[in-house]
Amino acid sequence: MFKKIIKYTFRVVLCGLVLLIVLPFLLYIPGIQNFIRRQAESYVARNTEMRLSVRQIRLSFPLRLVVDDVMVSTPVLDTMAYCTRLEADVALWPLLRGEVVVHRFGFDGTTVNYADSLAQFGLYARVGHFSLAADRIDLKGSVADISGIELEKGTVRLSIGEGPSDTSATAEGKPVAWKIRVSKLALDDIAFSMETKPRITELDVLLKQGNLADCLVDLSRQQVAVTEIVLDGGSYSFLTDTTKIAAVQDTVRTAATDSVTEPWTIAVNRLRLSDNAVTYGALQGAPKEGLDFDHLA
Fold it and tell me: CB–CB of 68/84 below 8 Å?
């Protein structure tokens, strides 16, 4: 009797071990991947006010994930986000010691369109290509070493209005202790614009090409140190509605007395500029003869 108990116990344990080994490999079967995709689409439809559509998900050994044609839309089929292709390639063994090594993470042909009428906030973003590679992300030591970031054909438009004030009390927490090192950041054909209301300010940035070398961001100390920044073919414009500055300054002064935060420190060792233009001034009126501080270019 005792031998039978041992035998059946051994079989149960063996079957459990086989399942633990086999189940992860089932995720690499296309049929299982399609089942997971359909379940994810159904879950989002049941539990949110959005719709998720994914054409294809493919996971290959060990951890290379490719997702094609992802779309998030509202019930009336207004597209909130669309991505032609998303790819992530992560090393497996470093995860066992609490580290993440990203061979490649990127997405192509991505569009995001979000609007919140209550908060008076709008965001439109279009990215042709984005890729990131990380040599090491130490989850225990809160250190991230990123070897390279590339962003091509990126457009971002922000619209920020005066939404309802947040009256909820927020507790002041500890600063984030992460340190992020970026060896190289490359930007190509970038456009950024931001408009704020009711005090109208317009910020526009057009950049043909930009490069950043050896950047360290210390979130706990709120410090940024950069070895070199290169900007080629940039156009920068900041225009303000001067008729409403006084009222806004009173609001800013009142808010400043309520909460005081430590300033960020940014240090740049070398800055190289080529074919750049800057415009600063007021939205109203025309430039006067001579030096007009309301219209500088």
Answer: yes
Nearest in space to 185 (alpha carbons), one of 137, 128, 133: 133
pLDDT tens readout for residues 248-276: 444 444 444 555 667 899 999 999 999 99
Q: Does position 96 have pLDDT exceeding 70, yes or no? A: yes
- Of 190, 195, 187, nearest to 157 by C-alpha is 195
H or E, element range at 131: strand 121-138
Place of tokens 């940014």: 266
pTM: 0.79
Model confidence pLDDT, tens digit, residues 107-127: 999 999 988 877 788 999 999
Closest alpha carbon to 239 in 204, 207, 291: 204
Tokens, residue 37: 């995709």
Report d(CA 268, CA 225) in Å as an integer.
6
CB-CB contact of 82 with 110 (8 Å): yes
Tokens encoding 145: 């070493």
3-class DSSP assignment, residue 105: strand
What tokens does 248 get?
């806004």
pLDDT band at 88 (very low <50, low <70, confident <90, very high): very high
DSSP string, 190-203: EEEEEEETTTTEEE
Length of the chain: 297
Amino acid at 224: V
Please count the CA atoms within 13 angstroms of the CA of 155 that sit on its side-chain side.
Answer: 8
Residue showing tokens 């962003």: 151
